């Protein structure tokens, strides 16, 4: 009976320590599933623990990778921020890979939508209230 208790205790300790060792994405900016009226200025990832961000990609709805100024981190941190280029209206997917303090790699992804690019065209519309016609 004592052997079973000992094995059960060791198993539970092993499982709980491996679960605690892994970090996950706590929050992001833009948030997962966000619907934005304008292109976000920055991409921010906040993790539950210090990790090294080793890979980060941004793809549009066709799967084409967009050029972003990402360099793999050499030191661990819980928060990463990256300036984004002006994004046209589309659906986007962010894919990330981090390495925890135990050298374990974890991957994740989230999506967001930008549908405010048409706003610039509309802002250039000048209506003439007197006769209802407009200029381009």
TrEMBL record:
Gene3D superfamilies, per database record: 2.60.40.1220
Domain CopC: 22-114
Keywords: Copper, Signal
Pfam families recorded: CopC (PF04234)
Keyword Ribonucleoprotein: no
UniProt xrefs under InterPro entries: CopC_dom, Cu-Rt/internalin_Ig-like, Ig_E-set
Signal peptide: 1-21
Domain of life: Bacteria
Keyword Nucleus set for record: no
Protein name: CopC domain-containing protein
Natural source organism: Colwellia marinimaniae
Taxonomic lineage from the root: Bacteria, Pseudomonadati, Pseudomonadota, Gammaproteobacteria, Alteromonadales
């Amino acid at each position: 009976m004592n052997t079973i208790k000992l094995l059960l205790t060791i198993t539970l300790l092993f499982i709980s320590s491996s679960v605690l060792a892994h970090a996950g994405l706590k929050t992001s900016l833009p948030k997962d599933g966000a619907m934005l009226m304008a292109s976000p200025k920055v991409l921010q990832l906040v993790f539950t623990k210090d990790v090294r961000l080793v890979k980060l990609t941004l793809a549009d709805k066709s799967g084409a990778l967009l050029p972003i100024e990402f360099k793999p981190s050499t030191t661990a941190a819980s928060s990463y921020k990256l300036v984004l280029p002006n994004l046209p209206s589309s659906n986007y997917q962010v894919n990330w890979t981090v390495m925890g303090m135990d050298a374990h790699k974890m991957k994740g992804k989230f999506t967001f939508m930008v549908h405010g690019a048409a706003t610039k065209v509309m802002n250039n519309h000048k209506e003439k209230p007197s006769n209802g016609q407009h200029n381009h």
